[in-house]
Amino acid sequence: VTLEQESLIASIVTLGAVVAGPVTGYGVERFGRRKTMLMLTLPFVAGWLMIFWAQDVPMIYLGRLVTGFCGGAFTLAAPIFTAE
């Protein structure tokens, strides 16, 4: 793994979290807070499994992107759910 690849592996999580904002807002309004968080659990686990069983760097990128998306989505949905 090169230094550039390491840098992208570390930073791609943030990209996933940024993309999660509008999508999570839509999901929370359409499906509700609890259901949205439940729907995020499977992709979150799948992202970690992609990282764990990665055969190459692009697979790590994808796993990090998915876990970043789900982490960002949980960060938005959980406080709303807790406040209710």
UniProtKB/TrEMBL annotation:
Pfam families: Sugar_tr
Sorted UniProt keywords: Membrane, Transmembrane, Transmembrane helix
Keyword Ribosomal protein: no
GO cellular-component term (any): membrane
Gene Ontology terms for molecular function: transmembrane transporter activity
The keyword Transmembrane is annotated on this UniProt entry: yes
Regions crossing the membrane: 6-25, 37-55, 61-81
Chief site of localization: membrane
Ranges for domain Major facilitator superfamily (MFS) profile: 1-84
Topology term for the membrane: Multi-pass membrane protein
Protein's cellular compartments: Membrane
Protein name stated in the entry: Major facilitator superfamily (MFS) profile domain-containing protein
Source species: Allacma fusca
